[in-house]
Design a protein that fits this description.
Layout: H1 2-10, E1 48-62, E2 69-86, E3 89-105, E4 111-120, E5 123-136, E6 141-153, E7 180-190, E8 194-203, E9 212-213, E10 217-229, E11 232-243, E12 247-248, E13 251-252, E14 258-272, E15 275-289, E16 293-295, E17 298-307
Antiparallel strand pairs: 1-2, 1-16, 1-17, 2-3, 3-4, 3-5, 5-6, 6-7, 7-8, 8-10, 9-12, 10-11, 11-14, 12-13, 14-15, 15-17
């Protein structure tokens, strides 16, 4: 039973992020836990896990030309390694490979390709420390509190140019060009067949070499999870994010930032000893976005293996 919860926790709610994935480079395309791969419970010392996720997102935003839109389709392949070096401390690193297809749509609906790039994105490294635990044998429950900290590292290319030699739009670039430090507090209540957890985080973005800074954000998540069978778990959560405007040379960038609230259904299935499949979607249910913006669901599917 404990092994099950350790595995499920390690692949539990993201990213959205609409995660929060490390590869995302739009001001509202990420909510929930920035350290999703590190796990929501402390594993035994020496435990190591690998997870491979595929992720897709879609976004529209007002472009520089009045009445036109930038349309982004993004696919990401995320390799996450987590490790427990000592009791109550989990470490994580996520390596993303990103494909970004950016198009411009004018007022009459005509769509023109703008850029189509792929490459290694902004990696994420961090840790989670479980500093408090309470076990109630009578009710068969366990509570934990933990703090986490991580940063996105500007490893992705942020200087791509198009065929005419003009620099590709910031939201079409593979990387952000800046750092993304974040920190938060996480609570988990675990029972025999069910668990619940919630967390809040703050995310800051530094200015990149071109004078652009993605908006700082507050993120939160709340999830209920149920295990009806030894090989199956289901979850339903709420992820949220409020992001400030992006800034270009100190000036707010229109049609960036705002509020997103998403429902996150998820399912986890054991397919072989130590191996789990996962599928989830962050479905926007309420938004209050700045300017002209439309965001779609962020869909994630993957597999995780725990080395005991």
């Amino acid at each position: 039973m404990n092994a099950f919860f350790r595995t499920v926790a390690a692949v539990g709610v993201a990213l959205l992020g609409l995660a929060s994935s490390p590869a995302l480079a739009c001001s509202v395309c990420g909510c929930g836990d920035p350290l999703i791969g590190v796990g929501q419970v402390a594993g035994p010392a020496g435990q190591f896990g690998l997870e491979l996720d595929g992720q897709y997102l879609y976004q529209k935003a007002g472009a520089e030309m009045p009445g036109s839109l930038d349309i982004l389709n993004q696919w990401s392949l995320l390799l996450t390694a987590s490790y427990t070096p000592v009791k109550n401390v989990n470490l994580v690193v996520t390596l993303p490979w990103v494909w970004k297809d950016l198009k411009n749509q004018d007022m009459d609906g005509t769509t023109t390709p703008t850029s189509n790039l792929n490459g290694f994105g902004d990696m994420n490294v961090g840790f989670r420390w479980f500093f408090w635990e309470d076990i109630d044998l009578g009710s068969r429950t366990r509570q934990t509190l933990s703090v986490s900290a991580s940063t996105f590292i500007p490893t992705g290319n942020n200087s791509a140019v198009d065929a005419d030699g003009a620099r590709v739009d910031e939201h079409g670039q593979i990387g952000t060009g800046g750092w993304g430090p974040n920190a938060g507090l996480f609570y988990r209540l675990q029972g025999d067949l069910w668990s619940a957890y919630a967390g809040v985080w703050g995310l800051y973005r530094t200015t990149n070499p071109y004078g652009y800074r993605f908006g700082a954000a507050g993120l939160w998540t709340a999830v209920g999870q149920y295990q009806p069978l030894d090989w199956l778990a289901v979850a339903l959560g709420i992820d949220g994010r409020y992001a400030g405007y992006d800034r270009q040379d100190g000036v707010n960038v229109e049609s960036t930032g705002g509020f997103v609230l998403a429902a996150v259904p998820a399912v986890y299935a054991k397919v072989f000893p130590g191996g789990w499949l996962l599928a989830k979607a962050q479905l926007p249910i309420a938004t209050a976005l700045n300017g002209i913006q439309t965001i779609g669901a962020v869909v994630t599917a993957g597999i995780r293996y725990e080395f005991e």
